[in-house]
Design goal:
By secondary structure, the chain is α+β, with helices and mostly antiparallel strands. It has helices at about 5-20, 70-80, 135-145, 200-210, 260-275, 320-330; strands spanning about 1-5, 30-40, 40-45, 50-60, 60-65, 65-70, 85-90, 95-100, 105-110, 125-130, 160-165, 165-175, 175-185, 195-200, 215-220, 220-225, 230-235, 255-260, 280-285, 290-295, 300-310, 310-315, 315-320, 335-340, 350, 360. About 15% of the residues lie in helices and about 45% in strands. It has a nine-stranded antiparallel β-sheet with strand order 14-11-12-13-26-25-24-18-22. The termini are far apart. This is Beta sliding clamp.
């Protein structure tokens, strides 16, 4: 194999595909990035066996071929080249590759004739739709903090997606909190689908979707995300996602409308004490025109703050994990939040006061009554 390519384009492509490589791999070749040069293009790809990412850039191909080179070494070398272009020649038998730049050269030992394991491609298309620029970044901020980190229920480590006529619904939960968001898709006429996407689909997709619209394609067992020059494919999670509708409260005994900045500031200061001990709750007292927040720990001390708010309904005292409330507030986009309470032992609902397409449901901490 022999080709010449631009240093800046290759660096960006290497950084894109290298994100799928895991720090530890069961197969040595999975730490590599595959380069395939043919027909005036260079295709770069990497996989961790559950996901696959490929990026394509133009190049000058003198001799077509493929090679797998150590991903981190190759990326760091190309990134540091002082020239605008470089020339790469690879021995097809040993994988040993020579990179020439100006009067200089570097030699990287590849994986011989071994290529990356074949990743299944999307052969059938069950649903396809376009997502505007920035959509997956917003969804990542709204959903990923509520995804479970525990291995005991693997299905909760993903995001449930329901695709139907006119609406695309997303739900994440770890069993104690739940995030729900939806997008209007008025032009979609395809089949209804229910799938669970791995959380890395959103984190990787947010990067691809940051400056460009993307195409989302669902198939059997796979989901594909396509941006200009890049394709990300990952396996869907298998299993039954819990019936989340039953935990979303529909009736409320109290609610308040409050400045997000004011409430966040107070919670962050109160949380300075509570955060030292993850079992320390924040006590929320709601009454006419105010929200009182307080916490105390035996070793550190106590904090108490009052935030002005528009309140309706019953006065109540309720305990929450302060970090969980802060996570929910950070996902909101407006200036004011609407907090709705269904009882001191029942879920609360947090959303933008202007009724956006996102809300968060949070269980209070158990308390003696």
């Amino acid at each position: 194999m022999h080709f010449s390519a631009a240093q800046d384009l290759t660096t960006r492509a290497l950084q894109q595909v290298g994100r799928v490589i895991q720090p530890q791999n069961t197969m040595a070749v999975l730490a590599g990035i595959q380069l395939q040069a043919e027909n005036g293009r260079l295709l770069l790809s990497a996989t961790d066996l559950s996901s696959h990412i490929a990026a394509e850039i133009p190049c000058d191909v003198q001799e077509p071929g493929s090679v797998v080179l150590p991903g981190s070494t190759l990326t760091e070398l190309i990134q540091r080249l002082p020239t605008a272009t470089f020339d790469l020649t690879s021995d097809p038998n040993t994988g040993r590759s020579t990179i020439r730049y100006g009067r200089n050269k570097a030699i990287i030992n590849g994986y011989g004739q071994e290529l990356l394991p074949t990743f299944p491609m999307l052969e059938d298309t069950q649903a396809r739709l376009e997502l505007p620029t920035g959509t997956l970044g917003t969804l990542s901020r709204q959903l990923l903090f509520a995804v479970s980190r525990e291995d005991s229920r693997p299905i909760l480590k993903g995001v449930y997606v329901k695709l139907g006529t006119g609406r695309l619904v997303f739900v994440s939960t770890d069993g104690t909190r739940l995030s729900h968001s939806w997008l209007p898709i008025p032009d979609y006429r395809g089949p209804q689908k229910e799938v669970v996407l791995p959380h890395k689909f959103f984190s990787e997709g947010a990067r691809l979707n940051q400056n460009n619209p993307v195409t989302l394609t669902l198939g059997t067992g796979l989901v594909e995300l396509t941006a200009p020059g890049t394709t990300f494919t990952t396996r869907l999670l298998e299993g039954q996602f819990p019936d989340y509708d039953r935990v979303i409260p529909q009736e409320f005994i109290a609610e308040c409308r409050v400045s997000i900045a004011d409430l966040r500031g107070s919670l962050e200061r109160v949380n300075l004490l509570a955060a030292k001990d993850h079992s320390t709750p924040v006590a929320v007292h709601l009454e006419d025109g105010t929200i009182d927040l307080s916490t105390q720990t035996a070793d550190i001390g106590q904090a108490q703050e009052t935030v002005e708010a528009q309140t309706h309904g019953q006065a109540l005292d309720i305990l929450f994990n302060p970090t969980y409330i802060l996570d929910a507030l950070k996902a909101l986009e407006g200036d004011e939040a609407l907090l709705q309470f269904s009882g001191i032992q029942s879920p609360a609902k947090i959303m933008d006061a202007e009724g956006a397409q996102y809300f968060h449901v949070l269980l209070p901490l158990r308390q003696m009554i």
